[in-house]
Specification:
- This protein has 307 residues and is mainly alpha-helical.
- It has eight helices and four strands; from the N terminus they run αααββββααααα.
- The strands form two sheets. The protein has a two-stranded antiparallel ribbon. Strands 3-4 form a two-stranded antiparallel sheet.
- Strand 1 and strand 2 form a beta hairpin.
- Helix 5 runs antiparallel to helix 6.
- It is rod-shaped and about 125 Å long.
- The two termini are 26 Å apart.
- Pfam families: Flagellin_C, Flagellin_N.
Length: 307
């Protein structure tokens, strides 16, 4: 086969372009810090990176859910704690009222304070987090109690709000109102589908009735109900604390997963800069060598050709 000068030049130009392309790819790797710029550079590596990035996005969503759920529970814990403090004060006032040495004016003052504490309990029952009621299950656009302490919502069909905080891991974040504020079952039995009065409010009303009628027996009887209600509040608060602790552990686990997946992603797609610099030097030398060889093939003048 006869090899012409044009063939030599074309082969030389192809080789130079190939070497230049290789050097350009290495320069792109250095500039971006990534091993591949397009899927065709490394299909398997790109596929792994997509999976790792998907995992990171999912973990970040779980972490946001954990943060939101924790905030919800912390608001709830504060509200439950306030109810406990109110009940403690009501108990103190009840013991004081049961003292037979009280003057009529003393019981009037006690009755007035208990009336205000009752209003505060109703206010706490309608506490909201980010515009959502925390004690109404998934019916977060509703209040729990009206101004008289009666339940507004149908408690028999109220489910709890949940957050997805991990793969197949959901946590209930709210306390349905009757779990904390109780139900006055005196008139309704166990039927919670009927709008009825909160047990805590019923205790307040019984106590106020006893104070207003000077019924010492009724006043003393409310002490037992107050103690039972306080025990329930403590139980609810402990349950909330356990959930907050669980979320803290979950957050730590998700942070560890973020570090692990981020490291895997970096190992998969980030370049070793020292190695890449060495690779660039090699490609530069190859390209310079091809330029030098090409200068001998492409003679710029007849005199250069005759040398």
């Amino acid at each position: 086969m006869r090899v012409t000068n044009n063939m030599l030049i074309m082969n030389m130009m192809n080789n130079m372009n190939n070497n230049l392309g290789k050097m350009d790819k290495v320069q792109q790797k250095m500039a971006s810090g990534k091993k591949f710029q397009m899927p065709s550079d490394d299909p398997i590596g790109v596929s792994k990176s997509l999976k790792f990035n998907t995992d990171l996005s999912r973990i970040e969503q779980y972490k946001r859910n954990v943060d939101d759920a924790t905030s919800w529970l912390e608001i709830t814990e504060t509200a439950v704690g306030e109810v406990g403090d109110i009940l403690q004060r009501v108990r103190e006032l009840t013991v004081q009222a049961a003292n037979g040495t009280n003057a009529p004016d003393d019981r009037t003052k006690i009755s007035s304070e208990i009336e205000q504490l009752k209003k505060q309990v109703i206010k706490v029952s309608n506490t909201k987090y980010a515009g959502r009621s925390i004690f109404t299950g998934y019916k977060t656009d509703k209040n729990l109690l009206d101004e008289n302490g009666n339940y507004i919502i149908d408690l028999s069909s109220t489910e709890k709000s949940t957050y997805n905080v991990g793969p197949a891991d959901d946590i209930e974040v709210n306390i349905v109102g009757n779990e904390l504020f109780g139900l006055d079952t005196g008139n309704y039995g166990d039927d919670v589908s009927t709008t009825q009065k909160s047990k805590i409010i019923d205790v307040f009303d019984e106590l106020l009735s006893g104070l207003n009628t000077d019924d010492d027996t009724k006043i003393n009887d409310t002490l037992v109900a107050i103690d039972d209600t306080m025990d329930n509040v403590l139980s609810v608060r402990a349950n909330i604390g356990a959930k907050v602790n669980r979320l803290d552990l979950n957050k730590n686990r998700l942070d560890d997963q973020t570090l692990t997946v981020t490291k895997l992603l970096s190992n998969n797609e980030d370049v070793d800069m020292a190695e890449t610099i060495m690779e660039l030097k090699v490609q530069e030398n190859v390209y310079r060598a091809s330029l030098s060889a090409g200068a001998r093939v492409i003679q710029p003048t007849l005199i250069d050709f005759l040398r």
